[in-house]
Design brief:
globular; about 260 residues; about 45% helix
């Protein structure tokens, strides 16, 4: 039995457990939908090489198919719970950097690391350019109603942060803001609530922001008031504040696609 390569990602391990528990009562069409995602709905407009990469994954690893989780259009496979993030609207630099981080285990994920580790540099660039150029879905990624006071709290944290606890304003790096958003940081407008909340939880628990993260990761850890050099540091954001920020960003309009960017 192979070990899970990212021991801190209990959220991923539990998702596999839930899938295995549901498997005995799953019929064949449901299994194909869960295991293969949206690959059968992809169009023939993609270039042949990209399409084969999306469908089959890297050479020698047919299960590692990008489109099975993220969809050929980068919409996260249509999962409103945010198990897989929306990739449209992100910059090429961010997506390419994320794949590099997963491949090097600098960003922990037992799901993404084996996939990214099989990709060559050219494949990473092709995939980053493809997903960054995909059209935006209509409307925000809203998952249910949210009280007005919760959204107000989320907007306040996004615009002002929590100065008393060392939490910076989210919008300074992630938008929405006047002026350009740094290319190496993800845009959060219209992202799934569940995905944003899960990622913030990983920062709060110290799973993300460790010594192996790229410099941007260490900066993010400090921006949310967590010190990666102090094990056992208490979370700087409460669960209700994390939910408020996630709900606020999920209801923001999606940014325009960034497309390919120049080499740095």
């Amino acid at each position: 039995m192979p070990a899970w390569v990212a021991l801190g990602r209990e959220d991923e391990v539990w998702s596999v457990v839930v899938f295995l528990q549901a498997l005995p009562g799953t019929d064949a069409p449901t299994y194909r939908r869960l295991a293969f995602g949206q690959v059968t709905a992809a169009t023939e407009e993609a270039a042949e090489g990209l399409w084969l990469l999306l469908l089959n994954g890297p050479t020698g690893n047919g299960l590692a198919a990008c489109a099975r989780c993220h969809g050929a259009g980068g919409g996260g496979g249509g999962d409103p719970n945010g198990a897989f993030p929306r990739l449209q609207g992100q910059t090429v630099e961010y997506l390419y950097g994320a794949l590099q981080s997963y491949a090097l285990a600098a960003r922990p994920s037992g799901i993404m690391q084996p996939v990214a580790a099989e990709l060559g540099d050219a494949e990473m660039r092709v995939l980053a350019e493809h997903y960054a150029a995909q059209p935006m879905p209509a409307g925000p990624a809203v998952a249910g109603e949210m009280p007005a006071e919760t959204l107000a709290l989320g907007r306040r944290i996004a615009q002002e942060g929590l100065p008393g606890r060392g939490v910076a304003a989210c919008g300074a790096c992630h938008g929405p803001k006047t002026g350009p958003v740094p290319a190496l940081y993800p845009r959060l407008e219209g992202q799934y609530e569940g995905y944003i909340a899960t990622q913030l939880g990983l920062w709060m628990s110290g799973v993300r922001g460790g010594r192996r993260e790229k410099p941007e990761g260490a900066m993010m850890a400090r921006a949310v008031g967590m010190n990666p050099d102090q094990p056992g540091h208490q979370p700087s954001m409460r669960p209700e504040e994390i939910r408020a920020v996630a709900a606020c960003y999920a209801r923001q309009p999606r940014p325009a696609p960034q497309g390919a960017v120049a080499e740095r």
